[in-house]
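Deviations from the work plan: none for this task. Representative record:
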Amino acid sequence: MNGQNQARRTRISSSLSSTEFDVSFKVMVIGDSGVGKTCLLVRYKDGTFLDGNFISTVGFDFKNKMVEVDGKRVKLQIWDTAGQERFRSMTHNFFRNASALLLVYDICNAQSFVNVANWIADVKRYASPNVTLVMIGNKSDCSSQRMVKYKDGERLAKEYNIVFLETSAKTGLNVDLAFEAVAQELYNNSLTAADLVGSHKESFDLKNYVDSEKERSNCCG
Amino acid sequence: MEDDATILSTGHVTSSESVDVPSDFENLASSNSQNSASNPANPDIQEEVFVSADDQYVSDSALSLPGPSSDDDISFRQRKLTMLMTEEDESELSSSWKEKKSHIFVLTEAGKPVYSRHGCEDKLSSLMGVMVAIVSCVHDRNDTIRSIVAGNRKFVFLIKLPLVLVAVSSALETIHQIEIHLHYVYNTIISVVSLSQLNRIYSTQKNYDLRRLLTGTDKFLDHLCNSMDQDPQYLLRAVKCLPLAGHMRDFVGQSLQQSKTDDLAFAVLVSSGQVVSICRLKEHNLDTTDLQVLLNLVNASATSFHAGESWLPICLAQFNPSGFLHAHISFLDEKLQTCLIFLSADRDAFFTLCECKKKVVAKLNKHKCLEAIHLAYSKADYTVSKVGIPELWHFLYKTNNISQFTCPEFSVPYHNEKQRQRLFGLYQEMHGKIHNPAAPLKLHYSVSDEETLLAWVASGFELYATFSPLVTKNQAISAVDRLLRWIKHREDELFMMRTLTF
Amino acid sequence: MASGKKVLLKVIILGDSGVGKTSLMNQYVNKKFSNQYKATIGADFLSKDMVVDDRLVTMQIWDTAGQERFQSLGVAFYRGADCCVLVYDVTMPNTFKTLDSWRDEFLIQASPRDPENLPFVVIGNKIDLENRVVSYKRAQGWCHTKNDIPYFECSAKDNINVEQAFQTVAKQALLQEADVELFPDQFPDRIDLKSNDNKPKSDCAC
């Protein structure tokens, strides 16, 4: 099993320096203010953690990240959104063009978890029906202040039939996995029937992939 | 804000008109120590000379300026407000909070807190209730409260329904100056919510808690309030440009022109908070206040922009208070110093503007502008010694028609924070006296143990100059003349004399 | 620990002078406050923090003077109020009869978005006194006819019911808040650059 995991992992490698790409996708990170959207992105893009005081995102931040999927260069155009109420309508406006949405809540903030339902309602209303949606419970390192149990997140995700994982921008737990899995899914979805002819690739299932790859933090609640 | 010149109304600005230095200064030169009185209010001032704007030479420092009108009812209430600010047994208001020199409060007309510079605004809800009650009492008498002066404290009110802005200051600012500060605070709030949205909400929901729409914006307001205490741009209502060779600035402007696209109103390049160049649609001007609000937002958020590209709705009140422009903000260097801002009327234009940015950067690189900008910034502002007038220690020079100012970096004796703050206070004081609406002055000259100060308002400019205390009047007059020539000679470098259009 | 957003509620206390509004506030807010403003402005202002349904609520309490001469300042006081507490003295029937006009006055001056649902609470004060005149039944009956206003009886010596009264007020006000939706499209005003009226404010520089 491990060997296969290794093989899978090498197919998705990040941090390409060239700006040329074969295909690009728009990805948005959404969720209440303060759940850690920016930290997740900075962890993913730069491999660092934004420690210190909370600095709220102003408006929308945009960054490109190149990853390699099955030997192809994939450009992820990632929107980091401000979770504040006044940007809600503009955020909805951007949903239309997003191929994937990462919906983040904070495991130490029950309200942010309660609001997941509202976010999903907005996604259903404004995003494309085929959008790839991933639910993320962030700050899994803060086990002592945990307010939302792992299984609660899991259950809610199951209810909506979406992929779920817990991450920690601080330790890096599952951060790369979240984005890389999304990249793989988007890439696969973009392949036409003709591309798949003659391919011996196993069919990729986002949920199975994530479920098998994700690590649990020590105190899962 | 009234009386505010736009950044550049149309294309070229002709050189400032020649100033008859001698005649304006005749009164000053002819005054001697016997005529001019020392200022009883301020014993440190040895000599003070005023020349009023209508040229009446007034030597007496006790100008009869109109005092606050007395009104029994109002004064009774104002005593109450003062008492609230000074009482000991109000446990919410700690003594250190009360001792702050400058407070700014924003509340709704229902009395709900929106912002407080110091302290947590919802702990101040009782105080804000009193403020609204006072506003209402005066309103009931078909009047609008503007200010209350109580001892060394000034309470200044700016009513911009549905908002009420109140400043409480025990510093040296005049009421007029404080009002201008409140306008900046107001404009910053409008930049986030827009006037039409604000009015729309409060027309039906008088109990709306505006903080819901302002979450995360405390940093803009805090940064603004701190800047207003020390940055001449808010005192002079003018922006500072990065000193840059004229032809290089033109290259920057031409690079910005490359970004021309539908619905793009303005393109601005800023470095370390100083304007480098602006390109605009012919029919539109970027008002000074709007530009300052925009720059404050960028400077207050620099750390959140994370070297990516940002997209932010912003309402520029002077441009159009009813709608939002959308700002594409990105930094062109690792150190997050040089910032490129596009202002578009199209909220879906982000990716188009990303492409525009590439064109701009390509042209900037072609002319090596970024290196020039970096060099201009890193060699720091010019020092006053460059002017070559040893007795001149510092100055602020504002050119009125294009609303820009220049000043050298601080050097001895203003080389530490305390002295700089003191000097800024002196500039504020001079500015306050010169611009007193009741008795505007043309010239103000005062000598103290520490320095000699001269403030001069002419039709094209304002000058605030600081000299050694030993300078004679004739030396000062001659120095001013030389300084003005020096500035004129370099105006192409010190100011953005022209903005290009798309 | 409260996890939701902070909420600030403007609460107006109305009722004839002498019914004991101030003593009640004294009890409830539990802070030493000096009522120095009432005589001049017409209200004292108090602030009380509480936790309601896991949310931190700050009540900005406007304890009014209850005298006629301040009624001209009604709009300022009542504007933007989230809830209203009506107080009468159980030993003084006149103070009960005026509740109707206080309530009407409030609804006129405050002009709330949804008058039917604006939270009111009635407090019958001074039940510790022996010469009670207004009966519980009568008061409760009146409250029932006014959209079921919650009714509490208390005395200045006993503040347990006062606490409950305010908890109820806050709860009902919060329910109102949940219904308030931000406008669906915050950016409906698109600027048309071609027609944007923006003449330079000062003279042309050339």
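DSSP finds 15 helices and 19 strands in chain B.
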